[in-house]
């Protein structure tokens, strides 16, 4: 497991702390967008574009980060 973790950190050129400081905010934004989408499903008048804006924003951010990565297919 440690080798897989280190391989991933190497592939994105980040230390553990750097990776944590990027991954946690992304995860929190995903959770926030998901909650907004659920609430929108329950009451269509609220959070009309929040879920899709979150998805597009994260996609753009991750796409630009992946372009800098040596191995974008690493999972």
Automatic annotation (TrEMBL):
InterPro entries tied to this protein: DUF6356 (IPR045936)
Superkingdom of the organism of origin: Bacteria
Protein name per its UniProtKB record: Capsule biosynthesis protein
Organism: Micavibrio aeruginosavorus
């Amino acid at each position: 497991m440690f080798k897989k973790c280190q391989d991933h950190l190497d592939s994105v050129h980040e230390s553990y702390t750097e990776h944590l400081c990027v991954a946690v905010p992304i995860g929190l934004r995903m959770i926030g967008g998901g909650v907004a989408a659920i609430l929108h499903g329950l009451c269509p008048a609220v959070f009309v574009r929040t879920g899709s804006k979150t998805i597009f924003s994260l996609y753009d951010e991750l796409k630009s980060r992946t372009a800098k990565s040596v191995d974008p297919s690493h999972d």
